[in-house]
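Pasting two entries for a bug report.
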Amino acid sequence: QVQLVESGGGLVQAGGSLRLSCVASGSIFSFNFRAWYRQAPGKQRELVAAITSGGSTNYADSVKGRFTISRDNAKNTVYLQMNSLKPEDTAVYYCNLRQYSTGTMDYWGQGTQVTVSS
């Protein structure tokens, strides 16, 4: 099993910055994908950013140029640096870890609230 613990959410004014962290523990394979998703009220959960074990990244168009995902494999931690925040970034942000064994295994954190005021 894998456990994910997020931190770093909060309330910030538009234009401000926040940094989210997600620490993984348990049975973690050396090859895995880490990602951040978000879900706003009344909307579906969407991918924000993802990063492979080797450091390749992918971003949603809405956050390109503002958010940066990074990881520290030695600490089993993934980060999301969020700059130039907008009210539409308000959501619960979830950390995800995906790895493969006999099938695809997805693990989720409990979520952390990010609120951006205008």
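Entry 2 (this is the one that rendered wrong in the viewer):
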Amino acid sequence: QVQLVESGGGLVQPGGSLRLSCAASGIIFSIYTMGWYRQAPGKQRELVAAITSGGSTNYADSVKGRFTISRDNAKNTVYLQMNSLKPEDTALYYCNARTTARNAWGQGTQVTVSS
């Protein structure tokens, strides 16, 4: 069965950095498009960044230039490097793995940006 386990969340001051990781199991990781989504209280879940099996990336406008998504197919892991964090980045961050036939989610990791 598919399992996505996120880690790396926490409390950080504005302007700080965090690196999220998502370890996948139960899938042929290299063929999946991997993404990071977030959901803040009272808001809809939104795409933050995604990376295809071929390495193409896309980002939400709000994080362009600050966040970087990457993947290590040898480790079945996708990362989200978050720099210059802002209070509005505070949310529960979810890892997503998808193909045309499957769509799987992790349990989420909390990111809180506050002084």
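Dev reply: Rendering is fixed now. As a check, the viewer should reflect this: The chain has a mean pLDDT of 97.
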